[in-house]
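We recall that each integer encodes one residue's backbone shape. We quote one record:
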Amino acid sequence: MSEIDIAGVAAAIGDPSRAKVLLALAGGSVLSASALAAEAGVSNSTISGHLAKLLDAKLLTVELDGRHRYYRLATTDVARALEQLALIARPLSVRSLRDDARAKALLRARLCYDHLAGRLGVALMDALLDQGVLAADGSPETYRLSGDGHERLAAFGVEVERLPRRRSTVRYCVDWGEQRHHLAGALGAAVTDRMFALGWLRRGKARRVVHLTDSGREGVASVFGMSVAEI
């Protein structure tokens, strides 16, 4: 096997406009070229070249719907890589009250592709460990479902046996805001989907931002024993 072309991928991500495109899609969105041009702050004619480079680097895939083209991140690993890069990146300067509000909302609760991140995501991971649904092993830590984790999750509405086998059931990301783990993998996606289905989460106006609803606050406290007063 030849050496990995990290430089090629880094060059594709490294342009500020392309980075904005990737981050706009990091919450699992599927967006048109014009929508991505608006996110990146470039013209429709300019965005096509950026999208071509991201497709060539296999960071994006494109879906055709008649004459329309829609873009998404190629894999969950791309979202995971963006989250990890954020750990070592310096924050952008906040230039308006709107930017400040969005930055704070992202830190509070956001989607990392298809699973919950931010303070809320980290609190959920802690609660699953405290409640004995997950158990931690080894150093560096890995996580697994505990003996009664399947039953506890089934009572919540997530049947582990039916989760897709094409990806790991239990994974984690190091949250760039909290510098701690939040739950990823098929289980992280399923729990997040269930929280949306129950009306515990709603999407914010800004890309990737999510909000815990009043019923969500009651639900996570009742089911997971979470204290969300500071979230």
